[in-house]
Amino acid sequence: MPSAMARRSAESDRSRCRVSALCSVRTVTAPATVSLPAGTYTVTAYPASGYTFGDHTSTFTVTVDSAGECLVTAKPVAPTAAPAACTGPGTEGNGSIGLPDTTGVDHYTISGQPGTFPAGSVSLPAGTYTVTAFPASGYTFGDNASSFEVTVDSAGACLVTVQPVAPTASPAACTGPGTQGNGAINLGSLQTGVAGFSIVGTGINTTGTTGSVAVPAGTYTVTANALPGYTFGTNQSAFTLTVPNAGACVLAVQVVSPTATQFVCTKTATDATLTPPSYTLPDVTGIQWFVGNSTTPSAPGTYPTTAGVLHVVAQAQAGYVLVDNASSQTFDLTVNPAPTCVLGTKIVKPSKTPNTTPSTPTTPTTPTAVLPFTGSDTGQLLPMSVGFLAIGGLLMLAGRRRRTP
């Protein structure tokens, strides 16, 4: 009977087998588990001492399957967006997209932007973007979403609200008697957010930015216009202004009285001269003169006249008024009858009565009646002188009645 040592040796022989794979051959005593990398192996069994496999198969092909990529499934976190911000009136800067730092995510791409982006904040203008996450090595996203549509909101119009300063009106001003010029709409100085003003009234449609805009007297609608990036909100921006009329523009004037001269008899050693009367209409700004019953004004100046009462009216012209607020003032100029102008026994008759109808003023002539002095025959001349004097008086009286205004 074999010893115990011989039996153990025989069992060991029966349990040995050869395993070959790749380029190596290993002999393994069964039973055993052999750790091998994935691959296909040929396993050959060898009989123990005293055994045979007969027709049984003793060589086997065994495949150790690969475990695959051994990927860990990660789930990307959706990016976030921050809106754009106003950088000034009517202007905006960028907003941003926040890319999460997530395990298993290597990097991101953003539509419309070049390159790739790591986790963090990316500054972008307002708009809609597609953000795609890419897995890190050894990770997969499986069925989890890896692309996200993200919108960076606009900051809006970025309007700054301002309040226009109300314009004012200045009245029209007199430019002369009975006439007036423009008044003004005062827009003031340059205002923040105000581009200018439109001014609309009867027959007027204009614009202005600062200062004064000349306009006739009247009522106007003045509307402020906002610069880009500004708004007036609920603040008043349209104003109704009235430019007052200057009024009648009447100037007060002081009347200077007209004057009249009398007949004047001038004697020398050899002559006697009778100077006829005249009247003078002063040259006063704003006054026109009417003489007698005439409806035609007479120019200032000196005119011849006759004995009697001369009716003269000073009337204020348009745009003027007399100092007492009257429109006219009447003057009666009295010219006494011609005196007897005698030199010794000689009688000087007045000249023919001049025409007193006012026309172009002239310097009155000095008609004279001169009789040479002879120094004799005074007795014969005296009756003749008296007769001539009487005839001259009648002629002068008739002329005065005919031409008295």
DSSP summary: helix tally: 2
Radius of gyration based on Cα positions: 66 Å
Mean pLDDT: 84
Give the N-to-C terminal Cα separation. Answer: 195 Å
Which blocks of ≥5 consecutive residues have pLDDT under 50? 1-23, 362-388, 397-405
Q: What portion of the residues fall into strands of 2 or more residues?
A: 35-45%
Topology of this structure?
Elements lengths: L3 H12 E6 L2 E6 L9 E7 L13 E6 L7 E2 L6 E3 L3 E3 L2 E2 L2 E5 L5 E6 L9 E5 L2 E9 L3 E2 L6 E6 L7 E2 L6 E3 L3 E3 L2 E2 L2 E4 L7 E8 L2 E5 L3 E4 L2 E9 L3 E2 L6 E6 L7 E3 L5 E2 L3 E4 L4 E4 L2 E4 L5 E5 L9 E4 L3 E9 L3 E3 L5 E8 L5 E3 L2 E3 L29 H26 L2
What do you see in this structure?
The protein has 405 residues and is mainly beta. It folds into four domains: 61 residues, no CATH class; 81 residues, Immunoglobulin-like (Sandwich); 81 residues; 152 residues, no CATH class. The chain contains two helices and 37 strands. The strands form 14 sheets. Strands 2-1-3-4 form a four-stranded antiparallel sheet. Strand 1 and strand 2 form a beta hairpin. It is rod-shaped, with a radius of gyration of 66 Å. The N terminus and C terminus are likely disordered.
